[in-house]
Amino acid sequence: MTDAQETAADTSLRTTGGAPPEDGGTSVTGAPNAEPIPLLEPREGIPPVITDAAALADVIAAFAGGTGPVAVDAERASGYRYGQRAYLVQLRREGAGTALIDPVACPDLSGLGQALSDVEWVLHAATQDLPCLREIGMVPTRLFDTELAGRLAGFPRVGLGAMVENVLGFVLEKGHSAVDWSTRPLPEPWLRYAALDVELLVDLRDALEKELDRQGKLDWARQEFDAIASAPPPEPRKDPWRRTSGMHKVRRRRQLAVVRELWQTRDRIAQRRDVSPGKVLSDAAIVEAALALPATAQALSALNGFGNRMGRRQLEQWQAAVDRAKALTETQLPAPGQPVTGPPPPRAWADKDPAAAARLSAARAAVSALAEQLNMPQENLITPDTVRRVCWEPPKEVGPETVGAALSGYGARPWQVEQVTPVLVAALSA
Known about the structure:
Layout: H1 3-10, E1 37-38, E2 49-50, H2 53-64, E3 67-76, E4 86-94, E5 97-101, H3 110-115, E6 120-123, H4 126-135, E7 142-145, H5 146-153, H6 160-168, E8 170-171, H7 188-199, H8 201-214, H9 218-230, H10 253-273, H11 277-280, H12 283-292, H13 297-301, H14 312-326, H15 349-352, H16 354-374, H17 378-381, H18 384-392, H19 400-409, H20 414-429
Parallel strand pairs: 1-8, 2-5, 3-6, 6-7
Antiparallel strand pairs: 3-4, 4-5
Helix pairs in contact: 1-8, 5-8, 6-8, 10-12, 10-14, 16-18, 16-20, 19-20
């Protein structure tokens, strides 16, 4: 039995439909005789979807009057719609029950966000949902991320379903995770799935808090959660077209220009139609056209991704984008790569700076050993980019204070500085 499973055994679950009996007939500890229990129905049934101001006001009042943390989740229509907006918001809080809110019908949830501003929000993989929640006025000041907690506690599988099953002994049905949540009306099975996603989130939070405390990592987790909650919105990505799948095949600047032109044309169309860019034109087709540099729409139609059901007008639209790229002057063509602001790729270190390469090799081995000792992924102990930067340009005088200051300067949290500084000092001094 793992420490996490012992913690789950000590955690009293709130009354739940299908909860394990207290007489020991079924265990949630992961013992051989324990069978995970399917969680089939929310304990109060599927709540109605909130679609108007009056119903939203009632929800705000109910959740403001609830107690304890609030479980929050959001469903997007990734792969179906343009952007990452929320199409359903789920919440659950003791004393308020579960609420399902349609942010298309109720696009401003700032009143709800304000009512919960002093409450701890429990999310799973918070960084995935926070951007779309921020768009509708919901921004937490305190949070608990159950996925990140699972990583820090050393769980090998940290998806919500795996965590609920391993820690609490319940099986969540995950068949609707990739559906088109912009569908209206939302089918009842989807709503049931959405409600169940927040059903046990606070229970999971409570069990993981105990587990982290048992491992001496609770303060570390709190520092991580505070960093997520206080982080500003990410800056818009520069040259997002460079992330087109298959870009490694595109070498010449003229071909890069074709990728850029086709990507930007596709993006405008996708935004106007509110569909996923991949449904307008695939990345593979963009790369095919860039490599081939077709001279005519007919030549373009012979390439993968452009033939079959694509009409003449569409072909001419894409060929026009190719022609615009081909007409650019040399000075207008994109550079082969983006300017590098940090260290060069590690594979180039041995040639550029053998001493730095040796430092990086020693540091990586030391960080890997420490992460294994602490039972957590290396990237959660310290980001690989931070290690590279410190190894490429170490302090002039290597010591605990200077290395610690360098780590802090790159955004490492105090617990990370405390844990990693000694092994990096040793690696940099070797």
